[in-house]
Design goal:
It is a single chain. The chain is α/β, with parallel strands linked by helices and 124 residues long. It has one domain (3-118): Aldolase class I (TIM Barrel), CATH 3.20.20.70. It is built from five helices and four strands, in the order H-E-H-E-H-E-H-E-H. The chain has a four-stranded parallel beta sheet, covered by helices on one side. The N and C termini lie far apart (30 Å).
């Protein structure tokens, strides 16, 4: 764990009364995500709450296979990195395959493994 991860962990652990993980479920567009990040940060700053911005580059667990899933790994990480630098916010996003972890780890401060993936077992 690097120094910035340790510092973030300490900040979130000490947050009173709590910290907030918030953002749109899936990245619809860069413009939308930046607008949401600004709005949520304005609110949490007024309330004195630490914020970790969350959105997904790929929402694989949709009720319909025809539903919009997001911009994908590469474009989604570019957008999340822009949120991170523009608004000085830590970000969290989820992964769907183990090979995504390295790329996501270069941008995200926290990697989420969705519960539906935890229950999947694949024999190789």
């Amino acid at each position: 764990m690097d120094a910035s991860s340790v510092a973030l962990y300490g900040q979130l652990k000490a947050a009173q009364p709590f910290f907030l993980l918030a953002g749109p479920n899936v990245i619809e567009s860069e413009e939308h995500v930046l607008k949401m990040a600004k709005h949520i940060k304005d609110i949490t700053t007024k309330l004195g709450l630490p914020l970790v911005f969350k959105s997904s580059f790929d929402k694989a667990n949709r009720t319909s296979s025809k539903s919009f899933r997001g911009p994908g790994l590469e474009e989604g990480l570019k957008i999340l990195e822009k949120v991170k630098t523009t608004y000085d916010l830590p970000v969290v996003t989820d992964v769907h395959e183990s090979h995504q972890c390295e790329a996501v780890g270069r941008v995200a401060d926290i990697i989420q493994i969705p519960a539906f993936l935890c229950r999947q077992v694949q024999d190789k």
